[in-house]
Amino acid sequence: MTQPYALNQYERAALLTLSQQEQVPAHDDGNRGFSKVHLDALLRLALATKVPSRTDQRRDDFRISDDGWRCIYGLTKAQIDSQSDRKPVPFRVWQWPLPAALKKAA
Question: What's this model's pTM, rounded to 2 decimal places?
Fold first, then answer.
């Protein structure tokens, strides 16, 4: 088993942005606290996926994956949405893959 990788502040900013928007353009460098390098890191960790851009057919956008949601909350988006009570609290440290103790707790 591989050691969990703790996301740095830029990867966290990128993942948080992906969790708040349906799609994020890779080429939009508008002062958002991260760059395409950090989106690519999330892609390599399988915390994000590429999707066709809605605005530029020559480029791809990024979207958070189920594993991205698990990295933040320990639950997929569908599991979060199915809860009738309040939204779960994000983990203090976002790392992937989740350590065994976090997998059991979630």
Answer: 0.84
